[in-house]
Amino acid sequence: MHGETAEATRNDAGRATDAAVNEIGRLVRALALYRPQLVLCVSERTLLPVLVSARDGSLLVARLRDAAGQMLAALGVADAAVASEQEAMMDAVIGKTVSRQVLGSMNDFVRMLDSYHGAGTLLDVSLRLAETPCGPLRMNSPREETIRAFALPA
Fold first, then answer.
1. C-alpha angle with apex 9: 93 to 79, nearest 5 degrees?
2. What is the distance, to the nearest Å, from the Cα of residue 68 to the centroid of all Cα atoms in its chain?
3. What is the extent of the structural domain holding 39?
4. Dist. CA 53–CA 153, nearest whole Å
5. Alpha carbon distances (Å) from 149 to 4, 11, 16, 85, 112
6. Residues in a beta bridge with 6
7. Contact in structure between 77 and 22 (CB atoms under 8 Å)
8. CATH code of 11's domain
């Protein structure tokens, strides 16, 4: 995969932290060299993928927060829980990740993007990627793990 990989986390002081700050855990992003330019964000805990446009990097965190909220809502997460997740993402810090499981899953998702070219909105493609069985999840999908994290009926 081409691009840059970083980890987005925050704590109450706005500093980077190793502890998960929300239900789906830390979000990891990779700037994938893909047309159009996209940012692939993946939950460290559930491997839930969220795609956002890479244009205007100064709005990346806000765009990620909105897209993650749309993704969770599309999976049936309650509005209050979605709002809580988005609140936890208000202050993001970008740094390097060391999770090989996340990076491997991100590489798999990036390889799948070509097959979903023109398959709808970024949300639609993210939802399709979320159905992918992932080895680090014991071949469960990120969708299933996210539903489990929020204790939703499958």
1. 115
2. 7
3. 3-149
4. 31
5. 28, 20, 23, 12, 25
6. 29
7. no
8. 3.30.420
pLDDT digits (tens, 9 = 90+) for 16-31: 444 445 666 666 555 4
Using CA atoms, how far apart are residues 134 and 131, in angstroms rounded to an integer?
9
Do 29 and 5 contact (CB within 8 A), yes or no? yes
Assigned token pair, 43:
């939950």
Tally of structural domains, the chain: 1
Segment 58-97, tens digit of pLDDT: 888 899 999 999 999 999 999 999 999 999 988 776 666 7
Residue 18 inside a domain? The answer is yes
- Between CA 68 and CA 42 the distance in angstroms is 10
| 40 is a domain residue | yes
Question: What is the chain's alpha carbon radius of gyration, rounded to the nearest angstrom?
Answer: 14
